Amino acid sequence: MTDSTMESVESFRLRARAWLAEHMPPRDEAPPPLVEDDAHEWERARELQQKLYAGGFAGICFPREYGGLGLTFAHQQAFTEESDPYEMPLMLNVPTFAICAATLLDMGDEEQKRDRIGAAVRGDEILCQFLSEPSGGSDLAGLITRADRDGDGWVLNGAKTWSTSAYAADWGLCLARTDWDVSKHRGLTMFLVPTKAPGVTMNRIRMINGNREFCEEFFDDVVLPASAVVGEVGGGWTVASRQLFHERNALGGGSPFVSGRGEPRTMPRVTPPNAVRASGRADDPRVREMLGEHLTLTKVAEQTADRVSRAIESGGLPPAAASIPRLLHAEAVQRGEDLALRITGSNAATGTGAGEGMGGRTAIGYLMRQSASLGGGSTEMSRNVISERMLGMPREPAPDRDVPFKQVKRGR
Amino acid sequence: MELSLSPDQKLLQESARGLLEQEYSLDRIRGMEGNEPRWSRDWWRKGAELGWAAAIVPEKLGGGSVSGEGVRDLAVLAEELGAGVAPGPLLPVNVVLAGLVAAHGHGPGHAAEIEALVAGESIATWAVYEPGREWTPSDPGLTAAPADGGYVLDGVKDRVEDARQADLLLVTARTPDGVAQFLVPASASGVTISEQWTVDLSRSFGEVRFDGARVDAGALVGEPGADGIVERQLQIAVVVQCAEVCAVLDRAFAMTTQWAFDRYSFGRPLASYQALKHRFADMRTWLEACHATTQAAAAAVQADSPDAAELISVAKSFVGERSLTILQDCVQLHGGIGVTWEHDLHLFLRRAILDQALYGTPADHRLRLADLAAL
C-alpha cells in the first residue's frame, strides 16, 4: 500500500474511537490481583484479541500479508491512546507481539511469518522465548541445549529457564547449539518449538514474592522438522541479537507492536510515597528527606532516559549508551525499596492481623530488591558495556573466544 | 550540557573559554594567596562585553541573550567557567539581576543599576545567609524598620560572595509587611564588611554587618511579602551551580579516565581491571544523569514552567550529592597523588564542595521536594 492510499491517522483514530466504544468492555480501575491459577485471564486475553481482529484493529503495524494492517507507528499510538479506557489484551504485548512476532517478522521465512504472526494477530496463539539456561547466567551465548540433525529434521535436548509466561504459550523461540566444532556464537541455531510437543516438560518457578510467572523447560528428544529453523542454521546468534533488540525496545516503550498502555498485571509494590502515607510519619523530617531522595532519583532516571535516547537517535552517543538508563533505573528501584523499608520502620516486621498489610507488603517488595539489577541482563554486564564500548577500556579476558565450543571448559 | 548548541551559543562558549585561558590558568588559581583579590574588574568588564551579565536581562532593560533563551545561555557560560574553576562574580551578579528583572514593574525600577551591572561597570551580590543559620531565605533575622520614608537595617549577613568587591548588596530583611529585599550600596554608612575563609581557592566571601544602616524607599526591590522573586533568584543560582559542577565533573572524569589508560600496575593498565572498570561505568552513568537533570532544570527555569521549583530541587539534590561521590572516586583512582596540592583534582573538589553547600544543601532540597509533593 502506498502512502497516498493509506488511511490518515486522524481518520483511523476516529474510526477506532467509535468501534472501541461499541465493542470493547470498559477497563477495571484496579487491576486484578495476581493469582496462581490465571488460566482464565489468558483465555480472556485471547478472546479480546479475537475481538480486535474481527473488528479490523489487530496487528496494526504488522504487514497485511501476515494478518496485520500494514499501518504506521503513529496509527498504533493513536489507537493506544483511544483504547486507554477499555480492557485490552495487554498480556499478549510482551513477549508475544513486541519480541517474538517482531523477531519472526525480521528473521522468519514466509511460512513462519504467515502462520505464526497470523495466528498471534488473530488471537489464536501465544509465543514465548526459550533463551536462558540454568547454567548460563550472563553468558547467554555459552548455552548447551543441543539440536542434532536427524535426517531432514532435528532432535532437541537440554533445558531452558526464566521463560516469561511460557506456561500460557503455544510456541517458543528456542536457541540451541547445532555445531560444537566452532566458537560459541557461531554454532547456534534458532528454532520454533511447539510448547506441547512430546518430550517438552515445563515447570513454573515460584519466586520469593509468590510470583509464578517464570518457567523452566526440559527437552528430551523433542523432534523438530527442518521448517522449525528460524533464519540460517548456525545463524542463531543473529536472530537472538534481533530478539534482544526488540526486548530492549519493548521495555523502553519504543515498540510499534505494543497495543494498549500499561502493565498487564502488577505485583502490589509499596513505593516510598505510599509508605509515608501508611506509616503516619509524614511529619518526621528524616522521613521527608528520604521521600525527597526517592523523588529525586526517580525523576533523574526519567530525565536521563530521555536525554540518552535523544542522544543515541542523533548520533551524539553510541547505542551502547542504552546501558546508562538501565543502570540508573536499577539504582532508582533498589533505593526505592531501601527507602520504603526504612520509612515503614518497625512495621515491616509484622502484618496487619493475619494479613500482610502495608508493612508486610513492603518487606515482600524488599525481598525482590535485586530483580531490577538482574532481569534483562545483570548490571555487571551493563557496566562492562559502558566501560568497554563507551570508554574504550580493554575487554575482559575470555578463554572461550575463537575456541571450538567443545573445547571450552564448563565447570570444574 | 545541551545535546547540541546553536552557532551563537558556540561562539559564546568559545569566547568565554578564550578569555578564561588567557587570564586564569589552573596554576594561577592554585597559587592564589589569602588576601589577594580573586579577579580584576577589567577582566570582568571584558566578560560583560561578551554577554556574561546580559543573558537573563531582557533587551528593553539593556540585556540580551544570543539564543533567545537566556537561562540556557547562562548555563552554557556557567559550564565554561566551571570547567576552569574560574573566579569572577558570574553567579552573584546574575542572581541579583534575576531578582531585579523579576521585580521590574513592581516597586522601584532600578533600571540604571541593571544597566551598570550588564555593562560590567558595577558588581552586585546577594546577602541572604545569616550566621549560624541554614538555608532559610523566607525567615531573615535582619530587620528593616520603616523610618522617615525609608528603612533602617540592623543585623548580620554572612557567606556573601565577593562581598568586598561588590558595589551593591541585595539584602533579604524582615519588615512589618513581610520579607523584603533591598539594594544597598556597600559603601553606605552603617555597613561593615569583613573577609571570611573559604574552601574554594578562586572564590571569596565576606560577613556584612548592618548597624542602623539607612536606605531610602527607592532601595526596595519588588514589594514586601512577595516570595516569587527570591524563588526566581534561587532557581538561577542552582542552574549556575549545577551547570558549572557538570563541567567540573566532565574535566575530572576525563583526567581520571586518561590516568586509567596511562597508569600500569602488575603489568597492565588500570583501565583493564573489572573492579575499576565498573566504577568508571558508574561514574560515567552519574555524569550523564547530572547533565540530564541540569539541562531539564535549565529548560524549566527558562520556560518559567510550573515544575521549575521541583526540577531545580531535583537537580541540586542529585548533582550536589553525586558530584562529591564522583570526585572522591576520581581521587581514589588516582591514588596518593590525588590528595597532593600540586594535582588539579582538589581545585575541582573545592568548587564542588562549595556549590553543594550554598543555596540549599542536597538535604534541604530533598525536604523541599517532599513539601512540593504535598505529602
Automatic annotation (TrEMBL), chain A:
Family matches, as Gene3D superfamilies: Acyl-CoA dehydrogenase/oxidase, N-terminal domain, Butyryl-CoA Dehydrogenase, subunit A, domain 2, Butyryl-CoA Dehydrogenase, subunit A, domain 3
SUPFAM superfamilies: Acyl-CoA dehydrogenase C-terminal domain-like, Acyl-CoA dehydrogenase NM domain-like
Domain Acyl-CoA oxidase/dehydrogenase middle as annotated: residue spans: 128-222
Residue span, Acyl-CoA dehydrogenase/oxidase C-terminal domain: 234-391
Every Acyl-CoA dehydrogenase/oxidase N-terminal domain range: 10-123
Keyword Transport found: no
Highest taxon in the source lineage: Bacteria
Keyword Flavoprotein: yes
Start and end residues of each stretch annotated as Disordered: 253-283, 392-412
InterPro entries: Acyl-CoA_Oxase/DH_mid-dom, Acyl-CoA_Oxase/DH_mid-dom_sf, AcylCo_DH-like_C, AcylCo_DH/oxidase_C, AcylCoA_DH/ox_N, AcylCoA_DH/ox_N_sf, AcylCoA_DH/oxidase_NM_dom_sf, Mycobact_Acyl-CoA_DH
Cofactor(s) required, per the database record: FAD
Record's keyword terms, sorted: FAD, Flavoprotein, Oxidoreductase
Family stated for the protein in its record: Belongs to the acyl-CoA dehydrogenase family.
The protein's name: Alkylation response protein AidB-like acyl-CoA dehydrogenase
Organism the protein comes from: Actinomadura algeriensis
TrEMBL record, chain B:
Domain Acyl-CoA dehydrogenase/oxidase C-terminal: 233-370
Cofactor: FAD
Protein keywords: FAD, Flavoprotein, Oxidoreductase
Superkingdom of the organism of origin: Bacteria
InterPro entries for the chain: Acyl-CoA_Oxase/DH_mid-dom, Acyl-CoA_Oxase/DH_mid-dom_sf, AcylCo_DH-like_C, AcylCo_DH/oxidase_C, AcylCoA_DH/ox_N, AcylCoA_DH/ox_N_sf, AcylCoA_DH/oxidase_NM_dom_sf
Presence of the UniProt keyword Ion transport in the record: no
Occurrences of domain Acyl-CoA oxidase/dehydrogenase middle (ranges): 143-211
Keyword Phosphoprotein belongs to the record: no
Acyl-CoA dehydrogenase/oxidase N-terminal domain segment(s): 6-105
CDD domains reported in the protein's UniProt record: ACAD
Family: Belongs to the acyl-CoA dehydrogenase family.
Protein name: Alkylation response protein AidB-like acyl-CoA dehydrogenase
